[in-house]
Design brief:
By secondary structure, the protein is α/β, with parallel strands linked by helices. Helix content is about 25%, strand content about 25%. The protein contains 10 helices and 16 strands. It has helices at about 40-45, 95, 130, 150-160, 175-190, 200-210, 225-230, 250-255, 300-310, 330-340; strands at about 1-10, 10-15, 25-35, 55, 60-70, 80-85, 125, 135, 170-175, 195, 215, 235-240, 255-265, 290, 320-325, 345-350. The strands form 3 sheets. Strands 3, 5, 6, 7, 8, 15 and 16 form a 7-stranded mixed sheet that branches. Strands 11-10-9-12-13-14 form a 6-stranded parallel sheet, with helices on both faces. Helix 10 (about 330-340) links the parallel strand 15 (about 320-325) and strand 16 (about 345-350). The chain starts with a strand and ends in a 7-residue tail after the last strand. The mean pLDDT is about 95.
């Protein structure tokens, strides 16, 4: 089969591989639509998870089931499904402890394009199909539904980690697609004022549409100073970090109130240490909590998020700014995520002919 892969550090391209085999609890899926992620960029061009040879990239997809194992009960060939980026082993001890995303070891629920071939191929393998696939609901565009595989659950998990409560003032740092979903999730949770950090006009417009009260452009001065000005020196109750670097935590700790919480879902692709300012952390005793987590995966998560779309509470269409028809555009779409032009939020590559327009 044809696939787009990481061929080594700083090198990606087309390769040919054998079609994956299907285990008794698994499924083989053919993609309907896929999307590149900044994580793919970190993986190839920053070496964030180390060198990989001919590892198929990609972890965001909707697809059509082409084969299921003998023990799979709820899915059959022909079903159109959302495939979460995180596909845990649901019988693991970690899953039983409530941390399915770490099943088999830290971050090991993240299999695609980490230690297992990803979804940028004519066929890909999904472990534990009954636990990790979700049917695309009627009326949901399979192309837009690709956002449910990673962007939506990751952004929403940042909101959960920050423990946003009714009436909270919240800072969202980074308004790429994950940050935009953090803004949307913050609004759904009942925040009062939402301050969103970003500079690209297309992202700022989308952030306002999802509920942002103010846009903070980091080119206009330190984030912490702008936030303190907007809050009249009070700071914010919660911070969601969806972009930036290891230094971003400095601003987050400075602006969050004592008793507040910082939720990080940003993939830190480089740097050795996260920096926490000592004094602004109350010399270690400020009751300022920092939580970081990989998004939950699995079927139930996908089904619940899908209901937000079918209920009209979440519009996915603003996230997709670039739509490509044909698998051959995979490299072009990935380069967009690498270069991030001003007009970009998220590209999607449509592979199924009946979805092309």
């Amino acid at each position: 089969m044809k696939a787009y892969a990481m061929m080594g550090l700083n090198k990606a391209g087309w390769i040919s591989k054998e079609r994956p085999a299907c285990g008794p609890m698994d499924a083989i899926v053919s993609p309907l639509a896929v999307a590149p992620c900044t994580s793919d960029v970190h993986t190839v061009w920053e070496g964030a998870i180390g060198d990989r040879k001919d590892m198929i990239l990609g972890h965001e997809a909707t697809g059509e089931v082409v084969e299921v194992g003998a023990l799979v009960k709820d899915f059959k060939p022909g079903d159109r499904v959302i495939v979460p980026a995180i596909t845990p082993d649901w019988n693991s001890l970690e899953a039983q402890a409530g941390y399915s995303m770490h099943s088999g070891g830290m971050l090991a629920g993240w299999k695609f394009s980490n230690f297992k071939d990803g979804v940028f191929a004519e066929y890909f393998h999904v472990n534990d199909a009954d636990g990790n696939l979700a049917l695309i609901p009627e009326g949901v565009d399979p192309v837009e539904a690709v956002m449910l595989s990673d962007m939506v659950p990751t952004g929403f998990h940042g909101v959960e980690l920050a423990d946003v409560q009714l009436g909270d003032e919240v800072l969202v740092i980074g308004i790429g697609p994950v940050g935009l979903m953090a803004v949307a999730g913050t609004a759904l949770r009942g925040a009062s004022y939402i301050y969103a950090v970003g500079s690209r006009p297309v992202c700022a417009e989308a952030a306002r549409g999802y509920g942002a009260s103010e846009i903070i452009d980091y080119h206009q001065g330190p984030i912490c100073e702008q936030v303190m000005d907007l809050t009249h020196g009070r700071g914010v109750d919660r911070v969601v970090i969806a972009g930036g670097t290891v230094d971003t935590f400095i601003d987050a700790v400075k602006v969050v109130k004592p008793g507040g919480t910082i939720g990080n879902v940003n993939y830190l692709g480089s740097g050795d240490f996260v920096k926490i300012p000592r004094c602004e952390w109350g010399v270690g005793m400020g009751h300022k909590t920092v939580r970081g987590g990989l998004m939950p995966g699995g079927r139930l998560r996908m089904e619940k998020l899908s209901k937000l779309v079918t209920a009209g509470r979440l519009d996915l269409s603003p996230l997709i700014t670039h739509r490509f028809n044909g698998f051959e555009h995979m490299e072009e779409a990935l380069q967009l995520m690498k270069n991030k032009p001003q007009e970009l939020i998220k590209p999607v590559v449509v592979i199924a002919k009946d979805l092309m327009r």
